Amino acid sequence: MPIRTGQQYIDRIDALNTYISLDGEIVTGKVSEHPAFKGVMQSQAKLFDLQHQQELLETMTYESPTSKERVGMSFLQVITPEDLVKRRYAAQEWALSSHGFMGRSPDYMNTTLMALASASDFLKDKPNCFPEHLLQFYDDAREHDLTMTHTFIEPQVNRKRYYIEDEEVTIAAKIVGKTSKGLVIKGARLLATQGGITDELLVLSTNGYDEWKAFGFSIPSNTAGLKFLCRQSFVGGDSTFDHPLSARFEEMDAIVVFDDVIVPWERVFYYENVDVANHFMNVSGFQAYTLHQVLSRQIAKTEFVLGVVQSIIDTIHIGDYQHVQQKVVDIIVTLETMKALLLKSEIEAQRDQFGFVRPDLATLQVAIQIFPKVYPTFTEIIQLLGASGLMSIPSAQAFAKDEGDLAHYLQSFQDGGEERVQKFRLAWDLTMSSFGTRQTLYERFFFGDPIRLSSILYKSYDRGHLVKRVEDFLNRD
Amino acid sequence: MPIRTGQQYIDRIDALNTYISLDGEIVTGKVSEHPAFKGVMQSQAKLFDLQHQQELLETMTYESPTSKERVGMSFLQVITPEDLVKRRYAAQEWALSSHGFMGRSPDYMNTTLMALASASDFLKDKPNCFPEHLLQFYDDAREHDLTMTHTFIEPQVNRKRYYIEDEEVTIAAKIVGKTSKGLVIKGARLLATQGGITDELLVLSTNGYDEWKAFGFSIPSNTAGLKFLCRQSFVGGDSTFDHPLSARFEEMDAIVVFDDVIVPWERVFYYENVDVANHFMNVSGFQAYTLHQVLSRQIAKTEFVLGVVQSIIDTIHIGDYQHVQQKVVDIIVTLETMKALLLKSEIEAQRDQFGFVRPDLATLQVAIQIFPKVYPTFTEIIQLLGASGLMSIPSAQAFAKDEGDLAHYLQSFQDGGEERVQKFRLAWDLTMSSFGTRQTLYERFFFGDPIRLSSILYKSYDRGHLVKRVEDFLNRD
Amino acid sequence: MPIRTGQQYIDRIDALNTYISLDGEIVTGKVSEHPAFKGVMQSQAKLFDLQHQQELLETMTYESPTSKERVGMSFLQVITPEDLVKRRYAAQEWALSSHGFMGRSPDYMNTTLMALASASDFLKDKPNCFPEHLLQFYDDAREHDLTMTHTFIEPQVNRKRYYIEDEEVTIAAKIVGKTSKGLVIKGARLLATQGGITDELLVLSTNGYDEWKAFGFSIPSNTAGLKFLCRQSFVGGDSTFDHPLSARFEEMDAIVVFDDVIVPWERVFYYENVDVANHFMNVSGFQAYTLHQVLSRQIAKTEFVLGVVQSIIDTIHIGDYQHVQQKVVDIIVTLETMKALLLKSEIEAQRDQFGFVRPDLATLQVAIQIFPKVYPTFTEIIQLLGASGLMSIPSAQAFAKDEGDLAHYLQSFQDGGEERVQKFRLAWDLTMSSFGTRQTLYERFFFGDPIRLSSILYKSYDRGHLVKRVEDFLNRD
Amino acid sequence: MPIRTGQQYIDRIDALNTYISLDGEIVTGKVSEHPAFKGVMQSQAKLFDLQHQQELLETMTYESPTSKERVGMSFLQVITPEDLVKRRYAAQEWALSSHGFMGRSPDYMNTTLMALASASDFLKDKPNCFPEHLLQFYDDAREHDLTMTHTFIEPQVNRKRYYIEDEEVTIAAKIVGKTSKGLVIKGARLLATQGGITDELLVLSTNGYDEWKAFGFSIPSNTAGLKFLCRQSFVGGDSTFDHPLSARFEEMDAIVVFDDVIVPWERVFYYENVDVANHFMNVSGFQAYTLHQVLSRQIAKTEFVLGVVQSIIDTIHIGDYQHVQQKVVDIIVTLETMKALLLKSEIEAQRDQFGFVRPDLATLQVAIQIFPKVYPTFTEIIQLLGASGLMSIPSAQAFAKDEGDLAHYLQSFQDGGEERVQKFRLAWDLTMSSFGTRQTLYERFFFGDPIRLSSILYKSYDRGHLVKRVEDFLNRD
Fold first, then answer.
1. Does B433 contact C438 at a Cβ distance shorter than 8 Å?
2. D285-468 — its CATH code?
3. In angstroms, rounded to a whole number, what is the distance separating the alpha carbons of residues D69 and C116?
4. Cα–Cα–Cα angle for C88, C90, C94, nearest 5°?
5. Residues B423, B241: Cα–Cα separation, whole Å
6. Which chain B residue's Cα is nearest to C421?
């Protein structure tokens, strides 16, 4: 049966024996049992299991056009406006399961792949392009319920404008050879979230100024020569009392090194075609479809934050202050705004050149302006409301051995000491632990450099008619 | 024919001879020819004329349920969701005509009256309440295409919390007597926009702590004892080159004084019923329906601002700067957000207790949080982009007598001196003239004190399920 | 006697018959009696008279090194740190007299000239440079108590980076010829504040990419071919009740056109020396000395704003609200910060290469970052506190003919209607009249484009030792 | 010899065997070797050692008026303005040593005690007050170079206004008995920074509504019944590559529980005197003197942040972007502002009622408004500049076992991979580790609730003369 269970997901990843390096150690044994990965893999497994819940079957799956079996809704191509709504419901369900903390829940990458596959016609008859490979991979991924990660950016050697890497030194991954088996890739790319715990790694170069950096392909995570070099883990520990979020949702980010990796030809979507590399993503519905999914995730996250904030207000009884009310209202405004933009993107959806229905891109580009600026303010709000409560956070162990002092002296208006500290630890893990701050950073840059996103919107947003309207006004009478 | 023409509107107002005091002079003669009023009355007349344009007839009017003649769409009661859309289209058309600068275009007050009339059942069988008077007045207004202003607030003697006026001194208007003819009202109310140039004055007390301040009624502007005391006029002059906005759209604000005014019983909707006075507005669809109209106006205004900003950018050629792009994007985000919230309010409309369909109030309450904060930033954006251009603004007369210096030395990348100065004068009138700054103040407080609006939203917005969601999360495993 | 009286100033300006064009009319007769100029000239005259007040003589004047008569303190060259303090006291006195609303009170330009003269050695022995002319003019200005305006910037044709004007079209003023009498200048410059009501016009080109735009000189305002083309006047009227600020302090801004103006050689400080044109201002103490004066003016203005804000709070009794208190505190923080930076600039003053003592430039560059951002917030504060009170502003005439309504119904907690409206009209004139908004724009750009000022500070501020400190920290242990 | 060495400090604390509970374990053995405390104790020891450096002896110490030996400068009472400068130099030296990360470096508490002792006359002849105990303790602390922590606030049960604890339930510490030996105290107080690693705990109740909560005393940390219950430790680990700040400066915060603690009478400064409890802190120079020290610490911290930010800019070469420059300038403005306010507080120092010289309080109250708002923006700046670099942070171990991938692929414009990651790990520890976020929270609330601090400044700041100035202006002419 195409949709997989959580256990199947875990077993498959464990079997891969992907090269993962963490703190100088190569991960051996089952990755699903490694402290840095077990929590998030369990959370991901739950997503797969949700697909099998009878009452969610219609929401989470659809009938495969090929196998006629149930496959994951995030693979659904959008033929009608209703398909968009179906996709939204499924995205919301998964987002709710992890409260929006997993930026690389499988639907994000499934959506990416669906978007590219739906635009595969663009590759047709172009030099060094293989739309059939892309379509085949899309089918495989859907029918095997594969998980993917990706790397779209190059190492941050030099962020000066117009920096072009010297040919002599290879840092960013590039084509260094071609053999009968496939492309040979050498170099590094950033920053694969969930790197090492997915079946596949999807790689698309987006600024292919040079032929040797113009490529698109996907390879299994355990391909020879492929290495995932991890940052320090932000799992605080096993205890879900102490680390309610990081114990469950810490996704890890990895630098990906290609050490003369051979990409089999049947997995190459295009190569050495600068024009295609520069335009394929933009011509495809990648932005529109993924932002549509992203917004559902961000909405779930905002709802969770609002719940946390209100819990804190209730437990220490500060809801009568005007400045407290204003802070809550600011979150409400963000929440309703994003919900409204999501609806608008669907209402204003249009059929694209490939025959599929896309949500309105301008609306979604506006939406993606908001969260990177607003999400960091949630930390500010929680710190200003939580105050010393965010520092009065003894651990589960402390409570376990407590003889009454903590339970008594840390009580609040509404809760006993332990219940109250549990809420504050959640607020702390959300905004102040290494996990929480990584979330903030992640949301700041989720869809790319905010300044670049602004510039794109500035250039693409249609407003000539408004300038005309002003001119007509000046010339009337 | 029920819908009136612009000329009919003007003639009717001129005929009223309403008591209007301005700079110590009582306005005599035709008010439509007075420098402080003629521009805005011409603009208002255009709105009436629009209703008669053949191609807009379906948009701007509908068939009266009583007279079967065409009446103004802003009077339409909302039986179906489609009625909301119709109302939106009409509101947009009028908003476009004045680019959102007329906060008291007749549809605002028509909508108010429609909302109250639709909730007239609330008054049924309550002491001192006359729902039949309200319904009759609604019919009259619709069939005669009356214009109204209103005053909902009391003089700002003391803004301390819980201030209650001393009984001895009458400042805020109150009931001082009852005769066979009607209620006797004495005192002042603030701040009637368009006061003096409408047919009627609608008065609803909203915080009727005391019986003598609990009333709702409407009276003709020329009722004996009723005085409109105007602030200084902000019409800069006749020239639409020099004062493109104030010459057309300056609405005037007036203090309303009731000098023992007798309100005929047939125009009294309720009196001396504190409970009704305190709840009628909130129980009715007043907020939901008027905010739905207001949003259309604010959207048109934002579009105009965006057009002006882009015109300036184009004329002095500064669109390549990143900080300039960011400023434009900020306006785009506001615009799309408000459009999205307006759509959402319609999609989530629900039938109310009186059988009518209301747009979603929470969504609209969120929307009204945005403009008071964002509109003032438009001034900042325009000042930062316009810079010295906003001070290099010779008048039309200066250009008329110019021998070439101004035309030459004030040219820009795109325009000759006069065209360029015309654009900057528009930007200046929009944000820096007395008219422009009054607009900013008006938008800050359009729907009431922003702090109070926040508090209302804090209290009414449903989020118990989100607190529950957080608790479930903490208790899982 | 060198220091002049107000009357002497007025008589001298009247006698010049400078070419001033306003609304297409050439000003004829006494400019001091023209509605657009009389208020500010009266205010300026008061500054001159202050110099003659016996108790201020020591503060406002010093003994001329040449004539041994009393001359204006703003001409004082800074030999000792105490001289800086003397200069500050004098600047504060004048700033207080106009509450900081006159950006071109004579001390600003006097300071400019003093700074240039003190650096005249820089011009010595350089091609086409005449330090002796500069010194002579400084002496003349001091001994005759001359007033000056200046124009440092070019018309805003195109603000694109690296825009260089086409040689064919003359817009920005440039050298078009040289005769035995002097340089011939043609073209325009922006934006002479007080243009037309000063004795002299000082012109320094600051970005002399081309020889023909590299010059520095001063000429009398009535030089043949020199024209001051004014923007619309922002004097609201004569009444100081209605227009307490614009009736007194509106300085006017003028485009300056040079119509083949001959600048006599003895008034040329340098010409056709690109290197000198590019560096003289920066090498001189211009920035340090003028910013030192500017800060005193901005402090007086901030104090006035704080007084106005508190008056409004008191009159409507809103000082108990936390958000009101926060707004006042924000102004207090600005005020104390600027006072502190002014002190620091004096304490850290150092002797420059020409032997004079300069206040610390980095400190003053920091100070000038603050006001352009904070001043506009004063408008926001006043609007949020004043609310409808800023629209309930009948004119003096209205009160004159009032039969009690206005006095009664507009009373506040503390004041009768007229006293209260007087305060709100002041607040309105400060922030919402055309005069007030021009003040805001003026402060935003007072010392140049804020972005450019930031960039200069970024480049000049010494922080290598702090980077070193971090590196040492990383390498310790 | 009164000033102690670092080793003496460590030995003394180790010998105390204070009751410290952490994660449910009671700390046994030497606290100076416990992972949660050893780093900060080493850093603290360095401060003591600094006092013994020959070249710093004059800066860091002065001659004791009693023992005639060298004692710590932070104990110096301020007889002359020069004494303030001496105190500043010493505070700066210690602040530099820990770059401002230790909020409870001993000088803070020494200053507190000095301030109270200098105001001991206030206690004279008041009921239940013992100024002689206070003076004796001040002498003891100075002559033994004691370290202290303190707890000034009560548990956050309920932050509703006017909440008064029920008498039945003891949560906040209070007097529950009096014996011949001393006061008996029961209950908890928050939040002792460095709790457990100081010699003494100073306790002052600040809102003594009730007699049983009105007290001031100091007791040794190892007093019977006194418990320090710690939050989770934020020491990330031993490696100063991985955790350059938390390995050195994590101070720990502890809830303090009094389990029927007997406070010896000779250590009681006052008790059961509500009036004294409410006013002693404010009457004393506590605020002025401690803020004077705090500012030196915050300045050192800001300098460190500026150094870190510039290091990152340099290493990835982004200093040419205007938005990057603006962010640096914002930090520069903060830094110079605080330096200026510190100077101003000294220049405007005045002699108090007890005969000592106090820095200007209003100036310092303004200063303390700034950091709580600005410090959190440092995180934003670092995240926006650091971007993905803040996630590409392998550990020291990873580098130790790296075979060249990390060093190569993580290189930057300026640095090799390891050097670059070291800088980014510092930036991360500064702003994104649990240590870094705790620092942010700490600075937000360092001197109390910012809203309360605003309110105090609003009420105390003298501005009547400015209101008067406005009134005079309105009444002139």
1. no
2. 1.20.140.10
3. 56
4. 115
5. 9
6. B231
CB contact under 8 A, C390 and B432: no
Name the residue ranges covered by the structural domains of chain B. Answer: 6-280, 285-468
C126-164: pLDDT as tens digits: 999 999 999 999 999 999 999 999 987 888 675 544 444
User: From the annotation, which residues of D make up the binding site for FAD?
Assistant: 156-159, 193, 449-452
> For chain A, what is the mean pLDDT?
95
Cα separation, D268 vs D285, in Å, equals 20
A322 touches chain C (CB under 8 A): yes
Between the two ends of chain D, the Cα-to-Cα distance in Å is: 71
Q: What are phi and psi of C76, to 5 degrees?
A: -65, 125
Residues in B closer than 8 angstroms to A470, CB to CB, are 304, 307-308, 311, 423, 426
Q: What is the pLDDT of residues A320-356, one digit of tens each?
A: 999 999 999 999 999 999 999 999 999 999 999 999 9
Number of H helices, E strands in chain D: 17, 14
pLDDT tens across D338-349, in order? 999 999 999 999
Average pLDDT over residues B73-89: 98
Query: Considering only CB atoms, which chain C residues are within 8 Å of A323?
Result: 322-323
> C263 near C217, Cβ under 8 Å?
yes
What integer pLDDT is reported at residue A414 of this predicted model? 87
In CATH, which of 3.50.80.10, 2.40.110.10, 1.10.3720.10, 3.40.140.10 is domain C6-280?
A: 2.40.110.10
Q: Give the CATH number of domain C285-464.
A: 1.20.140.10
Q: Does D179 touch chain B (CB under 8 A)?
A: no
* Confidence band for C285, pLDDT divided at 50, 70 and 90: very high
Answer whether residue D161 shows pLDDT above 50.
no
Closest CA–CA distance from residue B302 to any residue of chain A (Å): 10
Count interface pairs A-B at CB distance under 8 A: 150
Partner-chain residue, chosen from C158, C231, C320, that has the shortest CB–CB distance to B317:
C158
Contact D323/B at CB under 8 A: yes
User: Which residue in A156, A242, A405 is closest to D229 by CB distance?
Assistant: A405
Predicted-assembly ipTM surpassing the 0.90 threshold = yes
Size of interface A-C (CB pairs under 8 A): 4
Is B88 annotated for ligand binding?
A: no
In chain A, the residue whose alpha carbon lies closest to the alpha carbon of B460 is A329
Tell me the mean pLDDT in the region D21-28: 96
What one-character-per-residue DSSP string does D188-209 give?
Answer: EEEEEETTTSSSEEEEE-S--S
Closest Cα of chain A to D413: distance in Å?
5
Distinct helix (H) and strand (E) counts, chain A: 17, 14
User: Do the domains spanning D6-280 and D285-468 agree at the CATH topology level?
Assistant: no
Q: Find out whether B33 and B238 touch, Cβ atoms under 8 Å.
A: no
Best probe of the D interface among A313, A392, A412, A431, by most D CBs < 10 A, is: A392
What are the chain D neighbours of C470 within 8 Å (beta carbons)?
Answer: 304, 307-308, 311, 423, 426
Q: Quickly name the fold that domain A285-467 has.
A: Butyryl-CoA Dehydrogenase, subunit A; domain 3 (1.20.140)
How far apart (Å, rounded) are the C-alpha atoms in residues A151 and A255? 9
Q: Is the pLDDT of residue D477 over 70?
A: no
Contact partners for chain A, using 3 or more CB pairs closer than 8 A, are B, C, D
* B75/B69 Cα distance (integer angstroms): 13
Contact C314, D467 (CB under 8 A): yes
Whether the Cβ atoms of residue A172 and residue A165 lie closer than 8 Å to each other: yes
Give yes or no for B163 touching A (CB within 8 A): no
